[in-house]
Amino acid sequence: MGLFYSGLLVPFNGFSYTKKKKTVTAIQHILQESLKQSNDIQRTVQANIAGIEVLQRLVNSFADRDDSPLTNEDRLTVSKELRTIGATYAASSLLLIAE
Q1: Which is the most buried residue in 43, 61, 78, 95, by most CB within 10 A?
Q2: What is the DSSP secondary-structure string of 25-75?
């Protein structure tokens, strides 16, 4: 269910407002107030969207390369970036492909 909501809410990433001196993202607001989803779903969606940003950064960094094989430095960069998104990698990669 979290992957479904993540895909639907990607366009709202980056929007926020202030409520009682706290910053609330549009995604949090939609999940809490409109869709009445649990905190677990919110954490999953936020992790998936953060993973998308990491994967986009990786794709962009290698987009201008020719077909030469990855160097050891490239492999290290990729592994460090993928480590930051951990278990959400599979879900995030699906969303990036769909986008």
Answers
A1: 95
A2: EHHHHIIIIIS---HHHHHHHHHHHHHHHHHHHHHHHHTT--SPPPPHHHH
